Amino acid sequence: RRQDMQHLQGMLELARQDPDAALQAFNHALAEEPGPATALEQAATLGAHGYARQGLAHLDYWQTLPAPSQPSRGMPKLHAWVLAHQHYWEHEMAHLRTTLAADAATQARPPSPSSRD
Question: What DSSP state is assigned to residue 12?
Fold first, then answer.
């Protein structure tokens, strides 16, 4: 699957320590099959590797994509309804965005003179 291949490319770029290329690959993967779980996982992966700014950019990209289609019947439809009713994805996105923003702010600050020792 193209989404899987692009995701693996993003992981390879992280291993190469190229966060911008990883972000690009993750964005391509997300565009193949937009979904909030994928967006969260990839943004969190960027942040966990020390690239909070790229994680935030990935969440911003997610917001530009069309809403994913909802399941038409059965348990998947009920599960999607429960998640939507509880605003689950919105809360998870907001929480990750807050965490990444705090990490990005910390990474942007120069080290204090006493922490260099």
Answer: H
User: Is the CB of residue 101 less than 8 Å from the CB of residue 56?
Assistant: yes
Distance CA 4, CA 6 (A): 5
Nearest to 54 by CA among 103, 106, 3, 116: 103
Count of helix runs (H) and strand runs (E) in the chain: 6, 0
76: its two tokens: 């998947």
How many Cβ atoms are within 10 Å of 88's Cβ, its own excluded? Answer: 13
> Around 44, how many Cα atoms within 13 Å sit in the side-chain half-sphere?
11
Say whether pTM exceeds 0.85. Answer: yes
* pLDDT tens digits along 12-53: 999 999 999 999 999 999 999 999 999 999 999 999 999 999
**DSSP string computed for 24-88:** HHHHHHHHHS--HHHHHHHHHHHHHTT-HHHHHHHHHHHHHSPPPPPP-SHHHHHHHHHHHHTTH
The structure tokens listed for 105 are 């702010």
Burial of residue 22 (number of CB atoms within 10 Å: 0-12, 13-18, 19+): buried
